[in-house]
Amino acid sequence: MKNCVVIPVYNSPYIDEVIKDALKYDYKIIVVDDGSDKKVSVPDDVILITHKQNMGKGEAILSGAKKAKELGYNFFVTMDADKQHLASEIHKLIAAYKTDSIVIGNRDFQHENVPDSSKFGRKFSNFWVKLETFKTLGDTQSGFRIYPTNILDLNIKNKRFDFEIEVLALHSYRNGNIIDVETDCYYPPSDERVTHFDKVKDNIRLSLIHTKLVIQRYLLLRGILWR
Question: What residue stretches are annotated with the Glycosyltransferase 2-like domain (predicted)?
Fold first, then answer.
């Protein structure tokens, strides 16, 4: 079977461009519309899953994972709908993939349009994930990833932006492999940038999930909590 790409989308004006980019490389595409205000339409050869209301990026990825598994795929690639991830770079993730691994596309931040807040956020996230997983990773905030479909077996509680942190920790707790690989990306100028990250609500969610995961790791080490 061809490789499978899952694209979660919520109110992105660039979704058509992202789909066309992936189609150029003959990937099977699953678009998950996470309750967008304007109905998303896709070409006939693209699978569309629609959430009636916005449920969060993590929930959209899990919906895509379920469909990918149903279609017989063992893993799938995730791309954001903001044009930042390039379909031409997917082959690098696939080349690095090993059975049941999560592969993260470590974005090249040597672009003039990358804001300082994003650079700081990545360093901050990498620091905490290292404490939670004992793994040194270059870009724990990247949504350009390969997931094995068995992430559906994880007891993931957080379904918004904090999903992408929790899934790394839970996968690591069961001794799952996490690989990162350098990838190029497109970082649009500020007037073209689309983000649904709430600097207050989502930063609170991320602080809470990091606190929870650090405590879990400590309890695992002490033998108080089991995988």
Answer: 4-138
